[in-house]
Predict the structure.
Amino acid sequence: MSEDRSSHESGDRSWLEKIALLFSSEPHNRRDLEDVLAIAAENEVIDPDARSIMEGAMKVSDMQVRDIMIPRAQMVVIKAGATLEEMLPQIIRSAHSRYPVVGESPDDVQGILLVKDMLPEILSQDHSEFRIQNLLRPAVVVPESKRLNVLLREFRENRNHMAIVIDEYGGVAGLVTIEDVLEEIVGDIEDETDVEEDQFIRKIGDGDYFVKALTPIEDFNDYFHTRFSDEEFDTIGGLVIQAFGHMPARNEVTWIDDCEFKVINADQRKIHSLRMRPAAR
């Protein structure tokens, strides 16, 4: 047993010595630190997953809420005046655990509904006294410019999981969840409610669609019965950038044949999501 402990302690010292060696020339900037992590991964001091998480943790300090938020057009909300019977099909279909509850417009966010808070009401035989306002929790509001590392700290300190994002004019720009922030650190988090076929294209209204920029052109053509060429580009995002002739910013609009594309979310390097409206026929 003492030999096992000695061997274990020797292994710990060896690992610590490697770490000390890597940091013997102190990193002075982000690039230096990334190089240290790369060397650590190459020497198997840390595994690739650990390196990815460390780099992701550094990345979020440079990112803002607007970079990852779920855009307003993609938000799933519940109307404040909805009855229990009206909202249940929507909750079952979307399979979220939290929903913003809005009044006459998406800018009128009255609170956040947690599905678990509805269970007693659902089990009750009498729904005549049901009022959604009695179940609402206060909505946390954050600006688009808030840093993700600050938001994550506030989520943890206040035990919140969702925040409403507002633009410079005070209107609702979208929402962000703690899962969105964590995915920037650890990568995509998929659960049993994530459906593969819903990843790329989703109908959000009559003649109105949410489309991820990574949607393969072939899949887009199959869905909308279009004939876009995939000889130069594989994804619809590449086709849209070509149509713009530059890297577009959020809310820029372009047309390809009979389809209107509006940029919903983009950064300096790529488009993330689009809103597509086919021309009326």
Summary: The chain has three domains: 2-46, 66-186, 196-278. Residues 1-13, 192-198 have pLDDT under 50 and may be disordered.
